[in-house]
Specification:
alpha/beta, Rossmann fold, 18 strands, about 20% strand
Amino acid sequence: MAQVLVVADDLTGANGAAAMFAEAGLRTATVRTAGRDDALADMAASYDVVVASVDCRHAGPDTAARRVAQAVRAGWPARLVCNRIDTTLRGNVGATTAALLTEVRSLTSGHVVVLCAPAHPAAGRHTIGGTQLLNGRRLEETEVAEDARTPMRTSDVTRILRSQAELAVSTLALALVTGGADDLVAAIRSALAGDADVLVVDATTEEHLARLASAAVRATDGTETTWVTTDPGPASVAMARALGIGADHPEPPLLVVSGSVTALTRRQLAHLATDRDVALHLAPRGSEGHAVPDEDATASLLDDVLTAADPGAVVVLATAVEDRDLHSVTAEEADEIPRVLARAVRRALESHDVDGILATGGDVSTALIGELGARGVAVSGQVEPLAVAGSLVGGPWAGLQLVTKGGLVGDLGTVVACVDHLRRTAEIRRHHVAPGEARLPRSDDSEHTQHSDRTETAT
């Protein structure tokens, strides 16, 4: 199930709310339902947050309420259900709020209450005295008063809600929101004791929304109360945080494999160790003076280091770190060294995940790609000239991010830059779901095949 289900009245608003959840670190997707409950259910199985656009802003109130109720049922269960409304309160705010409230009450036990926080401070939308302001002006004094389909004749949030639904509304003034936390909690408890369906709250900053969400959760702690939200997005994100909803995706380490013994590579690794506080691990050799690493010992070392690695760590395996690690090698040994490293890495990856690999040294890069069973590399660009980024194509590790560079490529900071690139790419990918994990059924589904390339992402 999704942790958060957002029902939005139009697609642009859905995308705006989704972006806020994505920026909070949650894997988020929007979906247009258009009666396609199966699509919403499929997305909810793959993402942390699903934002369903039901395209009801300009529909009649009854139609809007029905579409919202259907979306809630299709996306249930979720830890938090949100009604994404227009920042200027156009459309069916009352009808959709009532529908969301009624549907969640039918699906859960206990008390269900709506936190209605229409403010979107970053976009110049503020709520003061229960009045919605657009860049400091009442809605009826702005161009939305002349909207062709939903002209706004009032800025009174409670009045707008009650124009379409019978709702028990209580309000929280800005003085309470900006006052002491305990007083705010007490005010919320008082409103709930009066059987309020909806709590309309003032806010002019993101901090106000965070305070409100935190106080709401505190006020109902230990009770069978479920909070739902009606807002343009910021208050829903704040409520998710207050409820402890957050990203829970593993952050495997990055792996640097160096088969190069050049002075430049060793300086680059030393700079990485200092700049990122990374330990450098020398591949164990079979015997004194023997240049070729011992495959079993190297695989065992990698297994131990990866097992002990903290989330997001960088693990470095190298054939040479200092001058004393250098040995004269025969042509046969030079051929064998990258093959042994590659086999040891493959064995370690059979039981450990990594977020990406930086391979420095042309021979070790080639050996790794072959040992991991890839058909090739889907190249995405260069981190720096001749430091090439991409992902493996084919094989058991298809989609694994990879950067390759020669031993004489770059300057002192190139390895750090490559590691940082892999980390950024991993963060982006972690917040997306591959199409094969969240493919939506189509009416002509039998004629379409599922993409399996893990290098693609859903947006």
